[in-house]
């Protein structure tokens, strides 16, 4: 028969019984003394505890990269205004950003998307203007010959000059300055309700086929106390329409320009137009129309504000 063996108190190395409760209290005392010593070291070194959303259990604790303070700091830095590059920088390093910018790339003299030819035309002398016109007339005469017409017949004698002058007029927006058009017509009125100018007639040239597309544009914005002269909104639309365009870019450029000049709470632009490149050629759909929109600021972030604008211009009917 096996005999049960009992452990005597003397079997322990120290000759005393180790109690689990006593062992836990010893650990607490060691942890408490460790906390006090680390606190003394932090106070003696003058180290300041970083602020976080909740107090740290240990004064020596520091927030990690995922702490709220770090996230807030990164978010603030992400919204910092980006300084537009100079003309030389634009030519050397073309923009590759895919983020949505609140303003277009407008250079120091107010031109939007300026090219080398834009500046040459803007700064040319009278002799250079005549040289440009003669060059265009020769190109139109060549086109007439290529399609099988006689450019010397009575009805076509002045056509090359007429067409050249018409094309220069239809693309005059390249030389116009956004800030000159606004001309300081921004007034501090303390107004912060929606302002809409609707049914603005727009005529532009399709850059793919060099034929017109026409329609109407609706512009709305919510001021941040400052309002702009209402005639300036159609003028801004005219500036960007009088160049070779596509409707999508035209809509976006008008919205971005207003956001850049006025700095409102938000801007919304909707355009509906008919494109002759798909009416009188191609698919030849005479009843089709194209609608584009661009919403920035509070119009983009608030669905109710956007719906109110669309309802007021009649899109939601």
Automatic annotation (TrEMBL):
Biased segments, Basic and acidic residues type: 1-10, 46-69, 117-128
Biased composition (Basic residues): 28-42
InterPro entries named among the record's database cross-references: GTP-CH-I_C/QueF, GTP-CH-I_N, GTP_CycHdrlase_I, GTP_CycHdrlase_I_CS, GTP_CycHdrlase_I_dom
Compositional bias ranges of the Low complexity kind: 93-105
Region (Disordered): 1-128
Domain GTP cyclohydrolase I: 137-313
Pathway as given in its UniProt record: Cofactor biosynthesis; 7,8-dihydroneopterin triphosphate biosynthesis; 7,8-dihydroneopterin triphosphate from GTP: step 1/1
Entry protein name: GTP cyclohydrolase 1
Protein source organism: Sordaria brevicollis
């Amino acid at each position: 028969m096996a005999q049960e063996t009992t452990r005597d108190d003397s079997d322990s190395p120290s000759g005393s019984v180790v109690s689990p409760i006593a062992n836990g209290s010893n650990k607490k005392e060691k942890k408490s003394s460790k906390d006090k010593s680390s606190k003394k070291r932090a106070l003696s070194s003058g180290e300041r505890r970083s602020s976080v959303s909740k107090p740290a259990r240990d004064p020596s604790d520091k927030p990690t990269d995922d702490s709220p303070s770090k996230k807030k700091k990164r978010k603030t830095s992400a919204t910092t205004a980006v300084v537009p590059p100079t003309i030389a920088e634009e030519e050397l390093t073309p923009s590759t950003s895919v983020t949505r910018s609140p303003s277009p790339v407008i250079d120091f003299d107010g031109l939007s998307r300026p090219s080398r030819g834009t500046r040459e035309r803007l700064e040319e002398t009278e002799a250079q203007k005549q040289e440009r016109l003669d060059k265009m007339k020769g190109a139109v005469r060549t086109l007439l010959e290529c399609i099988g017409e006689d450019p010397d017949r009575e009805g076509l004698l002045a056509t090359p000059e007429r067409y050249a002058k018409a094309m220069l007029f239809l693309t005059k927006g390249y030389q116009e300055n956004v800030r000159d058009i606004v001309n300081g017509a921004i007034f501090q009125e303390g107004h912060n309700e929606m302002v809409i100018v609707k049914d603005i007639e727009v005529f532009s040239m399709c850059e793919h086929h060099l034929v017109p597309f026409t329609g109407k544009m609706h512009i709305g914005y919510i001021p941040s106390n400052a309002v702009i002269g209402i005639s300036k909104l159609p003028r801004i639309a005219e500036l960007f329409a009088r160049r070779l365009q596509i409707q999508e870019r035209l809509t976006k450029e008008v919205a971005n320009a207003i956001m850049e000049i006025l700095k409102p709470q938000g801007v919304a632009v909707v355009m509906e137009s008919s494109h002759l490149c798909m009416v009188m050629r191609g698919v030849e759909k005479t009843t089709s129309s194209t609608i584009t929109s661009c919403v920035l600021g509070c119009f983009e972030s608030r669905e109710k504000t956007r719906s109110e604008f669309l309802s007021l211009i009649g899109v939601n009917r």
